[in-house]
Each structure stands twice: as C-alpha cells, then as structure tokens.
Amino acid sequence: MQYVFHYDQVPSPDRDLLGGKGAGLAEMTALGLRVPPGFTITTGACRAFMTAGTAPPEMWEQVRGAIARLEEQSGRRFGGGGGIPLLVSVRSGAKFSMPGMMDTVLNLGINDLVAKELAEWAGNERFAWDVYRRFLQMFGKVVLGAPAEAFESVLSELRARREVDSDAALTAADLEEATVRFHDIIGSTTGSTVPVDPLEQLERSVMAVFTSWENRRARSYRRLHGIADDLGTAANVQMMVFGDLGDDSGTGVCFTRDPATGEHRPYGDYLPDAQGEDVVAGIRNTFSLEQLGERHPDIHAELLGVMTGLEAHYRDMCDIEFTIEKGRLWILQTRIGKRTAQAAVRLAVEMADEGMIDRRDAVLRVDPGALEQLQRPRLEDRHGVEPVARGVAASPGAARGAAVFDADRAVELADNGDEVILIRHETTPDDIHGMAAAQGILTSRGGKTSHAAVVARGMGKPAVTGAAALDVDESAGKMTVGPLMITEGDLVTIDGTEGLVYPGPLPLVAPTSIPELDTLLAWADDFRTLGVRANADTPDDARRARAAGAEGIGLARTEHMFMGERLTVVQRIILSEDQQEREVALEQLAELQTDDFEGLLEAMDGLPVIVRLLDPPLHEFLPNRHELEERRIARIRAGQDDADLARLEAAVDRWEEANPMLGLRGVRLGLVMPELYLMQVRAALAAVAQRLAAGGDPRLEIMVPLVSTDEELRRVREMIEREVEAAFPDGAPHLPVGTMIELPRAALTAGDIAQVADFFSFGTNDLTQTTFGLSRDDADRTFLPLFLDQHIYATNPFQTLDRKGVARLVEVGTRDGRRANPALEVGLCGEHGGDPESIRICQEIGLDYVSCSPPRVIVARLAAAQAALGVSSASASV
Ligand code: PEP
Ligand code: MG
C-alpha cells in the first residue's frame, strides 16, 4: 500500500486521499509554482492509524525513504551533520478545510547541534535560537502536552526584562535562555524530553497530527459543518522556508479577491521578518499587500502573477499562503477561499460575467443558507455616538449585546437569553462554542485572516478584529479604551462592515439587497422547477415576501389575528351565553378580519393567498390559571365583584386539556364551534368581493388544518361552499379549498382526502411532532439537545426533514393524493420549506412548491435551483 506521495509524483490531485492541502500542493507543484518540496502521508494512513491504534509499519519505511529523497531535492540535511540543515513542517490537511482545528508542528528537525549549523548558514544566531524555541514551544504543546501558558509566561518575562513589547525585539541571548527554560518546562510538566533524533521528532509529530483528528474542537467543527467523522486527515511534511531571516524575508496570506465584499482586487496581510503562524495568530498588526509592494516591488509583482494564475486555474477565489525567504517568493498553500455570503454572491455573478464560469456554476457556488446573512442587521445611523475604537472590518453586518470576555460565559449568558458580544485579544479554536453563542466577535489583535475573522465569516456573524486601542483584560472580564471602562454585561455595538466599535446599544436596521443578488436569483429562477411561496400573516410581511420573489402566500396563520387587543372580543365569543351578544362579537371580529384579508390579497394581487382557518386550541385564547388567580386576589383586596372572572374561570375549567397539541384544535374546533370558521370564511369572502370591486385580482384559497379523516374535510367544505354561494349568488370566482396534511393518518389516507381537496399543504412541523410522537417545545427543553449531542438523532428533525420517516409520509401522501385527484396541487409549509436540504427532498418527491418565512424566500429560491440541478447544497463553496 502506498501511504506517501511526493508533491511532484502525484498521479492526480485526489482530495480524498491527499486532503485538500496535499492535493493543492501537488497541483501547484505541477503548475510549476515555487513550492517548497515535500510529501503527503495519506488520509488512508490516518484511517489505518485510527483503526489499529498504531501506524502501519510500511508507512514509516516509506516516510524514511521520502525524507532521504527530500534531502536530495532540497540539498539540505535532515538532522544536520554538515551543509544546510533541513527543517520540515508537519501539517494536517483533511479533505474539507478545517482551519485551525487540528495540530501542526513547525521547524521540526532541530536540536542543539542543528541550531548551531542553522546559525552559521543564516549568519544569524538570533534567528537560530528563535527557530529552536518556536519548535520546542510547538512540539512541547502539541506532542507532549505541555501547557502553552508556561512558555508564554517565560517570553513575557523576557520581554518585560528587556522592556519591549514584541518577541521580535528579543535578542539571541534572550532566545537562547528561552530554549533552556523551555526544555525545563517540558521536563517538569510532562516528565518527557524532546527527542534529539529528528526522525523520532517526525514520527511523534505525524502521530500527533493523526490523533488531532479526534480532538474535541475538530469533532465539534465537523458536527457544525456536517463533515463525516471517518474521513481522517492527511499529514503534509514539507521543507521549511524561513520568513524570519530579516527584512528581506516575511510571510503572508492573500486572497485573489476581497473575501469580505467580493470586490475584484487582491487582498492580503503581510508581516516582515515573521513565520507563518504569526499572521494567522494576529500577534502583530499586519501590513497590506500595497505596503508589500512599496517595500519589495518585484516580489509583489511576482505574487500578483501567481494569484492571477491560480485564480484562472481553479476558476474561483483563492486563499494563498506565501513566505519570502531572503528575497525569494515561496508559495506554501492554496485553497478555495472562504468568503462572506455577500462576497460569494458578487464573486459568482462577476466570474460568470467575466466568462470564467457559467451561470449554472454561479448558481451552484453560493450556499443558499448563507443568503440569510445578507439580510443581517446593519448600522445605518450612529445617532451622533462616536466610535471608541477602529479595527479591521472582518465580517460584515452589525451586532450588539452584552460584553463578555470568556467563551464559556458567552454560552452561559446566551443560554439565559442574553445577546452577547464575545471580546478577546484574539480567538483560538478553543473559543468556538462562545463564538457560536455570540451575536458578534470583537478582538484587539489580528487582521482579516485571523482566526476570529475566518470563523466569524464562516458562521455568518459580524466581527471586528485588530481593534488595537482596546486594552482587553480577559481574566478580569473588562476592557479599557481611553478613559472608558467596559465590564462584563455592559452593552456594546460592533460594525463589522466598517470595523468600528461603539459603546452602548445602537439601533440596527435591516440590510438592503445587493445588486448581484438579484441577478443570481434571476438565474436561479431559470433553473428551478419548484415554486416558492411565503408564510405571511400581515400585509407588511406579504409585501416583503413578494419583493423577495415569493410567488404567493402558502400559509397565512389567522390565529395571529386573534391576539392583542382583539383577544377580549374573541373571549366574548367563547364566553357569551347570550346568542345576540355572541353574534355582535362575531360580527366585530369579522369586520376586523375582512380588513386583514383584504390587505393580504392586495399585497399579493394576482398571486395565490392560502388562508388557513383557525388552528390552535381554544384555551390559547383564554387566560392561564395563574393569571386568573392573581386577578381574583386583586379583586378580593379591592373588595370588588368580577362577574367576568367567574365566567373566565368556568371557561378555563371547561376547555382545559391534558394534551392540547393533540386536543380540540384545528378542524375539530371548527366542527365543534362552527361559528368561528363561518365568521372567518365570511370575512375572507367579503375581502375578495371588496378586492374585486376595487378592480383587483384576488386569488383566495381556503385551507383547513389538522384534518385526519376525509369526513372532517367534507363537512367543513360543505360549510364553506354554502357561504360561497351566499356571498356570490351570481357566480363565484374560483375558490380552491384544501387541507393541511400534518397528521400521519392524513398522509396515509391521502387518497380519500384528495377526493374532497383541491390542494394539500404538508404541515411538517406538526407532522414531525406527530410522527416522532413528541412535542417540539417540550423536547427542545428536555431531551432533544442531548439526543443531538449524542448522535441519537443525526440531525434536528425540526430543521431538516426526516428523510426516513416524515419525508416518506410526504411522499406517500403526495403519490396517493395525486392518483386520486390528478389536479391536486401539493406544497409544504412547515419550517422545512426554508431549509436547503429539505427543499432537495421536496424536489425529489416532486412537490409543486415550498412555503417559508419571508427572510428565507431568497434562500429557498436558490436552494430550489440547486435541487433542480441535482447537486447537494453541501458542495457549495461557502
Ligand atoms: C405545520 O404544522 O407545519 C404548520 C405549518 O402549522 P403550524 O406551524 O402553524 O402548526
Ligand atoms: Mg400545524
């Protein structure tokens, strides 16, 4: 079995086998770019290691052979002993990029003897000690498990002694002292020593990289991004080139286009006299590519050429790591660059316009789920408040919340329902749960390519990085900026589009769409076959949905129209024993509902509007017992009588149910208390009449919820038809009547139900609850998080349609319904209607449309196009 491939001997850049990094290095080598020589140990080796607990013996043989070849290629010697010493890096690299989640060891192959030879070669003793201490620090932490803070505290002591604030200002003697003390720290904290033999260093590091595939943060990253646990990572062993050899050296990261906005101009961060990790770690503030151009015009021009070439080769925006060693440019890595949703849209459209890709590619390139972030809040008017700090605009959008300085605290406060902004010097992969819980991220160090920036963009959260004016004290839970002190819980606002930080909560406004988005969605519409409607209950929502491209209302939940100040009228209908009083209340509500429906029909003029008759259990319109008890106590204290109270109490007693979700609701209530449905139908028909009189084109459809037998629907349908005849004696407009399919029995008897229905709409919220036999809100508070965490449920069935269970009911219901009634129109209006993966299932089943909340209409349009193109949204590049 071949476990090792040299970059210049790879038959094809196979990402499954070599990982993304290994495949990219092989590809760049084949393109003739100046890539430091090296080799990849395959993901297959990692899988074998994970299964057996030890690496296959022939793998080590191949690695030793590969090192010998690497010595030949580089003209350097591994382990020293004359000539230029060969140092290598060992980096993880899985099929899918998992930035910062797994381990890396740099500067490997050094020991006391090699350090001396390195100093001679470089003519620079300080450099050699710096390389040595970096190696000890990484090997000590990653391979031997020594505490990182112990090394850091030695360095900060040395900086304090020399009164400097950067490691770059430490002398050779300081760094030599650091290496001695680092050896001691490793000995005293781990009981081990760093092997002198470079091959042993290499073996231990490769195993550490393989093992890091299973670490906690890598596992949670995989869960977050839906990456399979059994892929394993490759390990890349590559000749070190040094960016820390003085002012004619340096290191950087660049993007062929701006990853935050998508603008067509190269973007990058560069640090002179530094090693690669320094840029990403955000330890010093970086220079721009333009500044690199001022210092080294030739290298800058060469780099721009490489960028253009790589972008043309990959036909996508690339993220490139480079190092300049004594005036020579080396390319260390290329991958398809992570980007914000805004950038993804702009890049896709512009690249299609440039002819680099076609429209199909453009539509497939953008993750539909990420489009929601384009509608993220933003700061438009700062209301005279001055920013307290300026940093890098690392991820767009604005966020506000309580300042917190620790990831665990962020999770705690967010669990309590607080909105928080996570503030750190810089973030590390250990902060990932706190970042997920926060509204936005703020750091005092780092650039657009720092960990905080990359992760925030991936999560679709606003971030400001490198706000150097902030003096952050993480352990004390506070930061100072000028005279201002902000402690945990104080509200702050960050603007990730401008890179600004404000004290206090500033008002945020909904964002406007970007021009490229309309183009992309228009292309998507050309590919998609599934209709997209919106769930909207108010004219405002309906207008917003229509502007976003909704082709009608798939679900107007009328119960929302029963709440607020109308509740007392509704209560009068329920409570009154006097027929006349009840009719007055019904009439009053009918008038109000007529206006509601008219507004919806006007906003969606010419498009279908599905009005669902009342669904929730009656007791939702009555006060709860606790409220009644308080009211009674207050009345007794005031010495007043309250006849209403007694009636309310009696009604609560009468309508209380042990399990209201499965109780008197939906069509059952409609049949028990027909006057409610009749009132709603009359109001809807009156709204149609008024719209017709006004010259409009109302397309009302009436939907009955929670049907489980055809007889229920038949009876309500008869009621509706009588009202239609009465309202339009001279001939009624076309008024389809249909039903929600949200109970398993309804799906299984769809053939019967379809004979009395013009349309079906799958209510997959209730259908999921009733198929699984659980109540969503209760499960969410009790066992659902645990089940997801422990993989008892692979995904949250309320987010993504359960393919094996609920989706089968949808499939059976659709098939049987259409067989019985070929004209039947079939849609889906549960939350799943805005979820890309569920939309794919809807496409496979062959539904006519999905209906989702207005902000997800654009998500659904794009997801439906991708589903029609038959490609999983998971392969989109955001
Ligand atoms: C459903 O059950 O999926 C549905 C859309 O109805 P509601 O969420 O209002 O119960
Ligand atoms: Mg429902």
Task: Give a topology summary.
Elements: E1 4-6, H1 15-30, E2 38-41, H2 43-52, H3 57-74, E3 76-78, E4 84-86, E5 88-94, E6 104-108, H4 112-122, H5 125-143, H6 148-162, H7 172-190, H8 198-212, H9 216-225, E7 233-239, E8 250-255, E9 267-272, H10 276-281, E10 287-288, H11 289-295, H12 297-314, E11 318-325, E12 328-336, H13 341-354, H14 359-365, H15 371-374, E13 389-390, E14 392-395, E15 398-404, H16 407-415, E16 420-424, H17 432-437, E17 440-443, H18 451-459, E18 463-465, E19 471-473, E20 478-481, E21 484-487, E22 491-495, E23 500-503, H19 515-527, E24 531-535, H20 539-547, E25 553-557, H21 567-575, H22 579-603, E26 608-612, H23 625-638, H24 643-655, H25 667-672, H26 674-693, E27 699-704, H27 710-727, E28 737-741, H28 744-748, H29 750-753, E29 759-762, H30 764-772, H31 776-781, H32 784-789, H33 806-820, E30 825-828, H34 836-845, E31 849-852, H35 857-868
Parallel strand pairs: 3-4, 15-16, 16-17, 17-18, 24-25, 24-31, 25-26, 26-27, 27-28, 28-29, 29-30, 30-31
Antiparallel strand pairs: 1-2, 2-7, 5-6, 5-7, 8-9, 8-11, 9-10, 11-12, 13-23, 14-18, 15-22, 19-20, 20-21, 22-23
Helix pairs in contact: 4-5, 5-7, 6-7, 11-12, 13-14, 13-19, 14-19, 19-35, 20-22, 21-22, 22-26, 23-24, 26-27, 34-35
The chain binds phosphoenolpyruvate (PEP) and magnesium ion (MG).
